[in-house]
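Q: Could you fold this chain for me?
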Amino acid sequence: MSQARNRLLGILTALVVSVGIGVLLVSAEGASYFYLKATGRTARPLFFAADRELPAENVEIDHLDPHLGYAHDASRLDLPGFARYGDEDASFRVATLGGSTTDPLLAEAPWSLQLQRKAAEISPLVVYNGGVGGYSSSQETFKLIRDVLPLNPHVVISLNGINDLGFCHAVEPAYPMVNSYQSYVLNTLTRSKDPSWRGYVDAAVAPNFVYIVRAAVRKLTSNGEPDSRKRRVNFGTRYDAEPFEVWARNVRLMHSVSGEFGIDYLVFLQPTLGIGTYAPDAHEQAMLEESSATWEPRDYGAFVRDFYAGARRTCRELDYCVDLTNVFDGQAGGLYADYRHPNNRGYGLIAEAVQREMEARRLLDGDSL
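A: Sure. Below is the predicted structure, expressed as structure tokens.
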């Protein structure tokens, strides 16, 4: 009996200690979270940090890029950063930008390719497709300035929006221009040279508490003096804004830069399941419902609704923005390959909508907006 009693006592003691540690950890994480919020810093998700999203596995990343984080293997494209559709000597040039819904390596018949084929029946043109899976409007802005301008296109077309919602591809909301792959690479380099936690990624459990502890350790070990031997990662000035506001800023920048160089610019707010009047079929509805599991613990539906509410409102205020969220309206369904990406039929309808807009604005005959 004495042995059984001691075993039971040991179990109860371990249970009490475990519960006590759990309570302390929960209290510490909660206090850290509200402290970061109160001091204007970026708080991590409470208790459990979502993994920082890296570019999708089906995006082949063979090249690092100093400004964009990553880029496609140039050997698989017609020229560095772009797939070319049509005769390069054509007198009319169009450049397209976007994420995976524009990426030339992720679809059998990308909308940019279908656009070139359809529009070439009206006027000879060449389309340079610069889409890359995982790029948000922030990466598009950099790419336009650095890579599109040397192509000297007559028109630049962006199809974007979905990669901006919820800052899903940014290192964190305060630094929307820096994608998670850039952060991953830079922090890996920093950690390889620095064992003192100056370069790190968020802890999976109690991320706010761990952040505070790491900050305290850094301060205690620095003796108040910067250590020039230790490398740090600088992501620039904080930019506190809603995702749709960052998207709007970026498309305005791309429009302004393009106009300064005599280039017409159009942005098309891309369609996605769950937004607009399109009635998905049973398979598409199932894909949409299953999408939430991919984003746990974040609420994908809330991110989509919040972003598109602001982006659609902003799009109506910009004469160079076209809202395509209802481009599939009236179709019988079966236009999506997954909950975010159209299939080839869907891309064909997008290409037709883009062509109609270009014709309405007389862009295909070289006239200005």
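A (continued): The longest strand covers residues 93-98.
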